[in-house]
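Dear H.,

Thanks for agreeing to be a second pair of eyes. The structure we're designing against is below in token form, covering all 283 positions.
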């Protein structure tokens, strides 16, 4: 199943090209539950919302997906966790490009650890990316985004996929330079999530998903999550050793080779097997 947020903070159930407004049902269920201490109330309530959808009629189609402004499917995650340098070929290109590596060896992921992006950087596909410093280089990084579904700490790798609510496409937009990753990657609109959440049951193996990123129609990044150096189970288990994970927390799993600059006016199309296509405009 696919769930979106759209327009003026509406909740949507996506089927094909159509979106059904499920805001009333969603708000009724969220209102009937205690608010989670941390995390996103919609993701926290998702199992109950899915059960309700199975027994209630959807009503008329509200809109075509193409005609609504898509917001981030998670409104208020407690944290955005991100994996640096998690594909071999991206390490090689980073080390070859002084604008990325500053001429230094790039620390491998086990040494670098994970990093956090500000939650306030999060936007949906329809909101687009606003380049903040036009005189500096802002790069695209397309990544599989994992949306945590339940409160979890010290999860074993074998159980890790059991705490996933779903998956989405992530763009970890990045200003290049000498500052810490969290500083350069936390600018407003520099974390794009969408176009919707695909529930975990529709993605039997997140470590085997082909994906691409095109800029103005030109292929820039093309890879498969099978090449992740630290796979989805590993990232969840690792992150949960350091932080308690809460419903709606998002893990950006890292970008493959092919990163490059974007400028205002660029049109990005990210496509992931089993998720779909996400169109994002840079301004
Ligand atoms: Mn990244």
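And this is the sequence the design step returned. I haven't edited it by hand at all.
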């Amino acid at each position: 199943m696919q769930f979106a947020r759209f327009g003026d903070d509406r909740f949507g159930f996506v089927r094909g090209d159509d979106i059904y407004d499920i805001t009333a049902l969603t708000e009724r269920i969220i209102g009937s539950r205690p608010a989670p201490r941390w995390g996103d109330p919609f993701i926290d309530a998702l199992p109950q919302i899915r059960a309700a959808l199975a027994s209630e009629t959807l009503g008329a189609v509200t809109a075509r997906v193409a005609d609504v402004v898509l917001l981030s499917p998670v409104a208020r995650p407690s944290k955005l966790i991100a994996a640096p340098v998690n594909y071999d070929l991206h390490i090689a290109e980073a080390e070859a490009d002084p604008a990325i590596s500053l001429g230094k060896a790039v620390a491998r992921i086990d040494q670098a650890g994970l990093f956090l992006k500000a939650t306030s950087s999060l936007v949906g596909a329809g909101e687009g990316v606003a380049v903040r410093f036009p005189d500096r280089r802002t790069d695209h990084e397309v990544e599989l985004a994992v949306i945590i579904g339940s409160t979890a700490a010290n999860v074993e790798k074998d159980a890790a996929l059991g705490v996933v609510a779903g998956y989405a496409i992530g763009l970890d937009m990045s200003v290049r330079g000498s500052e810490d990753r969290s500083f350069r990657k936390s600018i407003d609109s520099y974390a794009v999530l969408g176009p919707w959440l695909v529930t975990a049951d529709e993605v039997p193996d997140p470590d085997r998903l082909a994906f691409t990123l095109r800029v103005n129609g030109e292929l820039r990044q093309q890879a498969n999550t099978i090449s992740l150096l630290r796979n989805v189970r590993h990232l969840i288990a690792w992150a949960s050793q350091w932080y308690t994970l809460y419903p709606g927390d998002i893990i950006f799993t890292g970008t493959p080779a092919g990163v490059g600059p974007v400028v205002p006016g660029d049109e990005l199309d990210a496509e992931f097997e089993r998720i779909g296509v996400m169109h994002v405009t840079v301004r």
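Two observations from my side: The domain at 80-281 is CATH 3.90.850.10 (Fumarylacetoacetate hydrolase; domain 2). The chain has two domains: 2-71, 80-281.

Warmly,
E.
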